[in-house]
Amino acid sequence: MSSTSQVITCKAAICWGLGKPVTVEEIQVDPPKATEVRVKMLCASVCHTDLSSIQGFPHANFPMALGHEGVGVVESVGDQVKNLKEGDMIIPTYIGECQECENCVSGKTNLCLTYPIRVTGLMPDSTSRMSIRGQRLHHVLSCATWSEYMVTDANYLLKVDSSIDPAHASFISCGFSTGFGAAWKEAKVESGSSVAVFGLGAVGLGAISGAKMMGATRIIGIDKNEMKREKGEAFGMTEFINPGDSVKSVSQLVKDVSGGMGVDYSFECTGVAPLLTESVEATKVGTGKTIAIGSGTEPIVPFGLAAILYGRTLKGSVFGGLKAISDLSIVANKCQKKEFPLQELFTHEVPLEDINKAFELLKQPNCVKVVIKM
After folding, report:
1. What is the pLDDT of residues 344-367, one digit of tens each?
2. Would you call 286 exposed, middle or buried from its count of C-beta atoms within 10 A (0-12, 13-18, 19+)?
């Protein structure tokens, strides 16, 4: 029996239930089935969605093997997998792209109907290849990157060039690309326009980068953390607002620095409920467009109806409107060519065994992304 057909025992970060601590334990990872790939993870990173997953969003199926950002190398493939082989470097995605379904051919959305977002924590066949002491493990979405090995369906992986920086590849597997895509594909920011970005984490910095690429001339970054000013400027921000410096509403502060009218586009990247209305109010009456990217843990949030009654538009977005193959491959190519200053995101690193230290680091004002070394 070859090693690729055997169960692998390895370490992974596990959460056993809502409010339970995250522990690093030995798990078992089965060989891949026909359309699946087993991956040896090189490194992973922490996204705020990972914190939400511990709190039961997008699902509360436990025990859960955590993590959805990362980069790895193909260890073995199922017999029906034709586009990947052992040794290929990959990044996971949580949506697929069949290029044939109604949504894929529409040119209007990245939400593939054939390979949709997995919100059950299981493989497409409703089973799992990961277990702990005989008990089935769930993923956050399509995979579990805070594990030395994982199995995912081949349709939720993108092959990347082996020369790509592993940490940077991990960053583009979710957070940064989500913001970048929101400006590029979802809002389709016009050259010469004005933009406001709420929250300057990896997603917000991605939105700034995307707006800059699209030719926006005024890019306003908004964050309560003064240390994010320098980060925003590195990605192309032209002005910075710290809401803590004023008693005015955030939307009014944006209008004050944009000639009183507001901006053409805004990107809400925090998931903080009151900022949804503020981000819409910060745009121009009649023509302003807001993209909601940040996901909080509240399923229903209050919203000021008057904000959109005046002709503004609010649009939701998943993965910034990026298609998992045709668009993300372009982002990966730019990443490989170092067209983004992604080193500015890399502020901390911890080994997998110290995963709980990563949660503490996220609370530090100088933290943007924590890389997890396997």
Report:
1. 999 999 999 999 999 999 999 999
2. exposed
**Under DSSP, is residue 29 helix (H, G, I), strand (E, B) or coil?**
strand
Give per-residue pLDDT as tens, 30-46: 999 999 999 999 999 99
Cα–Cα distance between 130 and 143 in angstroms, integer?
A: 10
Q: Scanning the structure block, which residue is given the tokens 């169960």?
A: 7
Contact, 63 vs 132, CB < 8 A?
yes
Contact of 250 with 273, CB cutoff 8 Å: no
Extended beta strands in 172-328, E state: 194-198, 218-222, 239-241, 265-268, 289-292, 313-316
If one counts every other C-beta atom within 10 angstroms of the C-beta of residue 177, the result is 28
Report the distance separating Cα 26 and Cα 24, nearest Å: 7
> What is the token pair recorded at 175?
């957070």
CA gap 324, 173 in Å, rounded: 10
Do 139 and 146 form a contact (C-beta atoms < 8 A)? Answer: no
Q: Sign of dihedral through CA atoms 114, 189, 90, 119?
A: negative
DSSP 233-265: HHHT--EEE-GGG-SS-HHHHHHHTTTTS-BSE
What is the pTM (predicted TM-score) of this model? 0.95
